[in-house]
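Morning F.,

Quick status update on the modeling queue. The single chain you submitted on Monday has been processed. Sequence for confirmation:
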Amino acid sequence: MSRALLFEIGTEEIPCSYIVPALEFMRSWISGRLEEAKLAHEPVEVFGTPRRLAVRVMGLPDSLPDTVENRMGPAKKAAFDAEGNPTKAALGFARSAGVDISEVGFAQTPKGEYLCVTRTIPGGPADEFLRETLQDLISQIPFPKAMRWSNPSVRFARPVHWIVALFGEEVLPVSFGSVKAGRQTRGNRFMAGDPVDVPDARGYENLLTERFVIPDIEKRKTLIWEGVGMNARNLKAQVKDKDLLDEVANLVEYPHVIIGRFDDAFLELPVEVLVTVMKHHQRYFPMYSLEDGSSLRPYFAAVSNIVPKSDAVVRTGYERVLKARLDDGKYFFEEDLKVPLEVYAEKLKNVIFHKDLGTSYEKMERFRKVALYLADILAPAKKEKAAEAAYLCKADLNSLMVCELPELQGIMGREYALRQGRDPEVARAIREHYLPSSAEDELPSDILGDLVGIADRIDTICGCFGVGLIPTGTSDPFALRRQTIAIENILLAKGYRISISELIDQSLLQLANRLKRDAAEVKEDVLSFFRSRFVSILQARGIPGDVIEAVLQGFDDPVDTFMRAQAIAEVKQEEWFASISSASKRVENILKKTQAEGTVSEAFFVQDEEKALYARFREMETSFITHADRGEYARALKLLAGLKEPIDAFFDKVLVMSEDEDIRRNRIALLKSLVGLFDRVAQFSKISS
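Structure tokens below.
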């Protein structure tokens, strides 16, 4: 007969971001222990609300399965004498195994036949195994932060008030601190908070639902989204912010959607202000126009944890709180518009960016110069706008609105710039220089945002490395990895051809009076940091590991490196590609044995094979360089493949290390010329056949 296991940990309200990771850990832990014990079971289910973390497993047997133990003894040839009588070794083995020698069998192993005793060990009761598993689990659940309360020896996300541990109808004696497991759970704190017995695991969900708790997270999400969507349609509006759903679903146990309204006058505020206040501060769902999907309607959907006697009373409370927030926002917005952005920019002189890197104004001055350097290369006609955008891009950090709502940095700068008559390109760059803020985020839509964003990030990266704030495996407080990847992703997406080495030089030049380390060492470390992050980008784009290793020699231009890697990955399986790899390896192996320098002179060619190789080299050199400079690496690779036959003939017939010094130097110079072409694409010796 099968039984069901239920384990529920009842707590004070757990932060919503803790719940799903904790449940996934519980699912994984229980599944792993059951698999180790070879205990048959149905899929492990998890349930979670702000006040409980629970796991349920159906279809568990009463007992652990029997196990078969094979105990190996001495080799058969050492176990019996010439007459077939057991030796002392065999008798001793039987005695130690607790059996008669007649009960000893044999087992075939890779080393031959050995004595073996096989016994079946009955499985013990499942309840003791499950008790130990649950007892271990409760102290192993990881949380970003944990609390201690009455018993300092235990820690959990929030104080634990009750534990339910049932195997069928049996209570498993699990404890945590002073809390002992029983069968009593609790319903919704405000609607059915009294303890109630759980008869068995199978009725767990229904029991809680009757007491105004929906323990299944996905069911709560469905109820919320359907309720919000239905109300939006009734108002001829739509909801889009599904990212808020995960958070809200884990803030309530019994969701009830209430629709509220705010004054139309607040629609004059930038959409982002309204959305930020509603989503991030009140956890309300904004409602958008059906027509354009971007402008707002003066409605919102809030999710209550109870079903009130009157929605109107609760609605009034939600509306009152939102109005107070929006009144503040309107005041901040109107006051900020009275102050020119230049004034806020100058106030950056009073804001410390980092004690070792100066004020935010000093930082802005540094990266503005780097932005001008980039504009010289990528958009000379935009230099003046790039300088203006860089000067103003951090100004809104001093605004009243951003001081109150930091999430709006850049967004408010753009709004204030537009409303103060600034160039729309400059205003857009003020907002977009922060993009991308994550791997999934959009990129700047305009080159000005790219220029200022790259310049700002490289200043942060070089500055932090320059004063010793280097990321470790567990710490990256300035998000230097993310900022490095953002630069490289912008370069790749837009096809900007710049030298990372020269970009670092420009940044370090501006940081010269702030560095606490040797500039050359900082440059080497930063370049290596860019290289290692680029490896991750190439891996994410499906480039094979050996190709990545081959193209990273001399890494400097990410776009060029990616084009080389992509070209090799695309043709690596072609038959002719093996010719390149083979030819390159033969040349490199010879050059490892010499350090000679020199240039090629046709006057020192003696044999037809070296003349033919040089002629083929000269014939394709110009075309190869042209294709490589254009990024047409597939064509360049095809040209290299044409060197295979003359290279093979050269090595078959020509002695490179000639006794004649001039001839020897000339042949080595020829091979180095060939290597120069190969290395323009990759170190082919790194690529597996």
